[in-house]
Amino acid sequence: MIYVVVQFSCIIYLIFNMRFDALDALEWVLILAAMVIGLSAIINMRLGNINILPTLKHNHQLVTSGIYRWIRHPMYSSVLLVCLALTLTNSHQIAQLVMIVLLLDLALKSNLEEKLLAQNFKEYSSYKSKTGRFIPFL
Q: Is pLDDT at 32 greater than 90 in this prediction?
């Protein structure tokens, strides 16, 4: 639960401290990419799998198609891209620190999720070796 609290605290901070007047082309490209990745993830994810907590649901199914063929955590990638765009509009070092905290939080949260997935799906190890965590091919 702490991962979710930290995640949403960081997102809320970045939203309330962004500067709309500082949104340039780069920030809009990041936001657009985040929307495409996030929507692709929602479309490919089975509705029963959606969960903000790092736990597996009763009938959880491993999704490895669509965007999940390249990225294991596309929803986190989407969040990170939007928050990076928000951070770039804000020159305060606190925003940069919050972005780093968010990245670390999502990395730790995804580690926990991946342990759970590996315990419940024997094919997860093979899938993990072929996909990037947040960025394709990394």
A: yes
Maximum Cα–Cα distance across the chain: 49
Burial class from Cβ neighbours inside 10 Å (0-12, 13-18, 19+) for residue 24 reads exposed
| Residue corresponding to tokens 């996909």 | 131
CA separation for the pair 130, 16 (Å, rounded):
37
- In sequence order, what are the beta bridge partners of 71? 132
Q: Would you say 4 and 110 are in contact if contact means Cβ atoms under 8 Å apart?
A: no
Question: What mean pLDDT comes out for the span 127-131?
Answer: 93
- Give all domains of the chain, ordered by start, each with its CATH number: 2-130 (1.20.120.1630)
User: Contact 132/70 with Cβ under 8 angstroms?
Assistant: yes
**Three-state SS for 122?**
coil
d(CA 61, CA 63): 6
Q: What is the mean pLDDT of the chain?
A: 91
List, for residues 58-73, the tens digit of each pLDDT value.
777 888 999 999 999 9
